[in-house]
Structures are given as C-alpha cells and as structure tokens.
Amino acid sequence: MQFTVSKRSRNLRLVTAATAVAALVTVAGCSSQSAGGGSSDTGKATASGGAAKKGLTVYFIPKDTQNPYEVLADKGGQKALKELGGKVVVSSGTTDTAAAQIPSVQAAIQAKADAIVIAANDPKALCPSLNQAAKAGIKILSFDSDINCGNSPQHLFINQADTKTIGTTEVDLLAKEINSTGQIAILSAAQSATNQNAWIGYMKQQLKKYPKMKLVTTVYGNDDPATSLNVLKGLISAYPHLKGIISPTTVGISSAAQYLSTHKNVKIALTGLGLPSQMRAYVKDGTVQKFALWDPSKLGYLAGYAAAALASGTATMKTGATFKAGTLGSYKVLAPAGDVGPSVVLGPPTVFDKSNIDNYKF
Amino acid sequence: MTSDVQTAPTGRPDSVQRSIGWRDALRWEGGLVVVLIAVLIFGSAQSSSFLSQSTIFYAGINIGYIALMALPMTFIIMTGEIDLSVASMLGLAGSLMGFLWHHGWGIWPAIIAALVVGALGGALNGVLVAYTALPSIAVTIGTLTLFRGVAQILLGSLTVPGVGDPQFPDSMTKIGTQSIPGGALSYSTVLFLVLALLAGIVLHATPFGRALHAIGLQPEAASFSGVRVAWVKFCLFVVSGLICAVAGVLLTLQNASVSYTAGTGLELNVVAIVLFGGVSIFGGKGTIFGVLLSVIIFGALQMILTQTHVEAEKQLVITGLLLLISVIVANGRELLSRVRSRLAVGGGSR
Fold this sequence. Notes:
The structure holds 2 protein chains of 2 kinds.
Chain A: E1 10-14, H1 20-30, E2 57-61, H2 68-83, E3 87-93, H3 98-110, E4 115-118, H4 127-135, E5 139-143, E6 156-159, H5 163-177, E7 182-188, H6 194-207, E8 213-220, H7 225-238, E9 242-247, H8 250-262, E10 269-272, H9 276-284, E11 291-293, H10 296-312, E12 322-324, E13 330-332, E14 343-345, E15 350-352
Parallel strand pairs in A: 2-3, 2-4, 4-5, 5-6, 6-14, 7-8, 7-9, 9-10
Antiparallel strand pairs in A: 1-3, 11-15, 12-13
Helix pairs in contact in A: 2-10, 3-4, 5-6, 7-8
Chain B: H1 2-7, H2 15-18, H3 22-46, H4 53-78, H5 86-102, H6 107-132, H7 136-155, H8 170-173, H9 187-205, H10 207-217, H11 219-224, H12 229-255, H13 266-276, H14 288-307, H15 312-330, H16 332-343
Helix pairs in contact in B: 3-14, 4-9, 4-12, 4-13, 4-14, 5-6, 5-7, 5-12, 6-7, 6-12, 9-10, 13-14, 13-15
C-alpha cells in the first residue's frame, strides 16, 4: 500500500518564465515562414501557420509528476513555449488518478490559461472539468493518453505514433525473439488507461498472425515500480512456461528488465515501450534485445506548438489544417477515426537495440 | 500507531477521570479556527484567484465526497475502531452503479442497488468487528482489498458510459459543473453540511451520542451500564458503508463516468481529516465541529497549494506533517502519560 497521506496531492510546478527576445530569435531561425516577421510581435494571425501569440500560458497536466516519460514530455513542451515567448505550467498529482488531475484543470481555469495539454489518467472522468475549461475559452489538447469525451469538449489529440503501428510493432518484435512460439503475457499500466488498452487491442489483432503464440493473460502494474514487480512475480510463478512478456509502459518494462537481469535462470524474452536511458544497461547485458519508443520530448514539443497555434488562432482542429512545429517542421490535422477525434501524429516509433541505443539520450 | 488503534478500548483506567474532555476539545478547535484564519490570509495573499466563488465551488467538488465519508469515520474512531475500507466501498458502489447502467438499468434502480450494496458491505465489516471481536484495522484492510477487487471484476478496463452506452442524465451530472441555484456551493458541499449538522446533533445531543463516547472511553463500563456495544458498532459500520456508497454515487455523477479505480487511496485522506479535526485515535474524544473545521482547512489548503504551483511532492510533505502534528498535539497528554508510565521518567518532548 502506498503511504500517500496527502490530500490528493496536486502538484504544480512552475517552470521557466520565458525570455521573449531570445525565443523570438530562435523561432525566426527555425521557421522559414516567420523569418521576416520579427517585428510583428502583436500575435495577429497572419496567414495559415502565422506567428503564435506571445505571452501564452499553457498548462501541461501529465499523468503524474514523477513518471520519467512524462517529465521529458513536459520539458519538450516548455522548450516549445519558450521558443514562442510563452510559458508552461506543469501541474498534476503524484498518483495516476483523475482526482489528482481535476484540481489542475480547475487551476488552469482560474488562472485563465490559454491552453491545456493533458495526458488523461481516465478517459471520461475529466470530461466535465475539461468541458468547463473549454467553455471558459481554453483550448484543450490531449497527448500520450487521450480523453474520450465526444464533442464536449472539442479537443486535439497529439498522438505519439499511429496507435495500430505501436501495437503491431511490439508483437512483431517479440515474435522474432521467440520464434513465434509459446505462451506470452502483457504487463500493462492501469487497467483503465486509454492508450494501453488501445495498443493491447491491436496486439491481440496482430497475434492472430502468429497462431503458435498464445496470450495467456494481461496484468496491471499501475505504472508503479513496486506493483509492477509484484504482478510480474505472480505472472512468472503462475505460468512457468512463459516465453515472452510485452510491457507497453516505461515503468513496467524497466521494472521487469531489472528483475530479469538479476534472475538469469528465468528465461523470458521481454519487449515493449521503454526509455533508452532506463533500458541501456539491460540491452547491453542481453536481458532485453529490442524495444520501441518515440522521443517523448519531441511529443511534448509538438504538443506545445500545437497548443500555441490553436490558442493564437493560427490553426484549427479541422481536418487538413496545418501548423508549424518549430524544428519538427509542418504538421497536418488528421480526420477523426473511430474513438479518436481530430489528431496529429508525431511519427513512426523507433526500435532500439545494441546497435543504436547509445545514440539516444532520453 | 496501528497496534494502538486495534486495542484502543482496553487498559486505560485513568482516562475516565478526564471523561468527555470538553475543555481539551474546545482548546483544539480554537486552535483549528486560528489555523483556518491563517490559511485564509495566506491564501488570499499568495493567490489572486483564491478569494473567489469558483474556489469555494471547486473545493466543494474536490473534497465534498471525501468529507462525507469523514462523518461516519468520526463516529467509528470515537468508539476506538477504524474503517479503512471506505474508499474501496466508494469505488465498489460507483462501479456497481456503472455496471448496472451499462447493462441497461435505469439511473434510480442503479443508484439504489449501489446504496444497498454499500449497506451490505458495511454490515459485513460490522458483523466481523462487532460480533467476532476481530480488530477492525485487520478486518477493514481485508475488505479494502475485497471491495476493490469486486469493483475491478465488475468493470475491468471498462469506463462507463462506454461505447454505445447512453450518458448519465444531464440533470444529475450537472452537480459536477454547476453550483446550487443562487449560491457558490456545490451540491456535494450542501449534502455534507446537512449531514454534518445531523451528525453533530446525534453525537452531542442524544443518548446514542453519549453511548459512543462511553464505548470509546471504557467499553466494559459502557456495556455494564446498558449500552449494547456490539449492536452500536455494527450500526456504525452499516452507516459507514451506506454513506461511502452515497459518496460513490456522488463522485460518479460529478465525473459523469466511473471506472473501478474511483477513489483509490482516499481512506487515508478520510482518516487524516478526522484526526486533524481533533478526534482522538484512542477513542472517546472529538467533535463534529472540529471535523468540519478540518474539512474546510484541508479543502482550502489544497486549493492554495494547487493555485500557487507547489510541487506535489512538497504537498505530500506538508499534509503529512500537519497530520503528524495533529496526532501528537491532540493526544499529547495521553501520549505523555503513556510514556511516563512506561519509562517512569518524564517524556521529554511534548
């Protein structure tokens, strides 16, 4: 049991008050379109992809404030807003619950923020609060883990990578390592996490291509290292013939890798989504062959630019709308599909192994 | 601390002399009033948006459903017991309501079923604590896990309303976004205030309330003087289960949705509020007024810390320290006499 005696600890971190002049120079250097617009600092929407307003305040509300992945994503957002002459407030709790995030949404409303970028701990519980924020004129964006609120509020999902590709990539990686044969299991985060469930759905689809691989169970570590370790141990003792584990969460895969690296008698292939910095040692000692991820700081950076573009009125959530995302180039809003509303996709996931892991610093 | 909780009612012959301890209680609440004023002054100085109607509304949304559970918890701790299953009961009731809604039940039948299960869950706790004399801390840690487990079985990865489910009725979910007509208070705040008034009357102005004090101070004596100790405790756990179910329904409507994780970990917040309100962890002492002040302080503090961007980790430290101080100060004399009797020398720190 975690001893969080707190009143739902909401945490708010005020970071970086930006230096506007330096930021303007950076923006001009990165984006050719605004190169001549150094003097138009009023933030008027010029053409499509015009300059963002300065002095914007964007609330980044991560799942919690300690998950290293979320911390990197938030830093990316801070970098983006700094380049644009605005600021980011990072605000959330220490536990992955909607109750810990709602006060941060309220604080954003009270502070008259321009945009909220949220990684939702619950697809629905935040909808009423976010809808209020939208009614107060705040632009709503989600990243990492989407909200599922229908049209109230309208929001833009900054997708890390195509959801289907993430699911299929992980199954393919594991299939190669275990010759497409044997029992496998999934070590996920919270059972209610939107992104995890979407990926797991595509994993199950992809598994149909590998009839000899059998998914025996999915266990939930709640993105907590101790819980992840406990459910992992339970998994190993319940399924002694287990051949492989997919853990599509950075906390889960690093906890599992740590255990497997110190228990070499347990021969289980492990893959999933991990941070290169956390996984480097385990790739080098052979515990893990391959895993995947995208650069979370680029995801946050993209979300920051998207938030600024929406708040400045230089982009909309309409299908086909475009905006510039600093050094990442130009992005286009994709049409809604299924549960997912308007979205922007960062790019394909990167697969890491011994040959390339030293090239990634996050 | 935990071992004291489970054996609290026994072995304290000296405490009868201090009996109800009104003077202690009033002194503690006086202190709380001072703390509250300090918090309000600090808040309005630090945050420009603190003194506003929206702060009052939001605080009510955030803490109202937790505060509800603090009322039966006050009664239970007064009798020297504890109920750690409250947040899981909230989660189970909400999950059941969502589960039934998902399967096409009407909103009222689903709510009533959730409340019935709340009372039944409370009765399970009550039977085990009151009639088998098992320590309540052990029983309710068990049901904490049990209730959450059942909630997880009911909903699993499903968040209700899921794909294809109708939304909960707007007329009810508006309690999450709108204040009561003509005021800044949330519906949850109003419900809490009404129930707090009721609880205050029961605890301080009825024979039942006096029985609670007596059980907490001296269960044997209470029993000899005609108080049906086991029955009273049983009733308290049933009421606790019921109120937690009410909180679960309330939270579900506020969020216009529910998943099995609803309320996870809140049992400690509830206990913290009650203890900070001056209710003795050893039983027998405490007032609803103190708990009310404690609720307001916690609610206000949380708003300030969020509005001023204090890091979550630091908020944990702040609230943890507050809780610790409250337990030490509120039970200072009791602790001191215990330390003295054990060491036969004066306990140094106060």
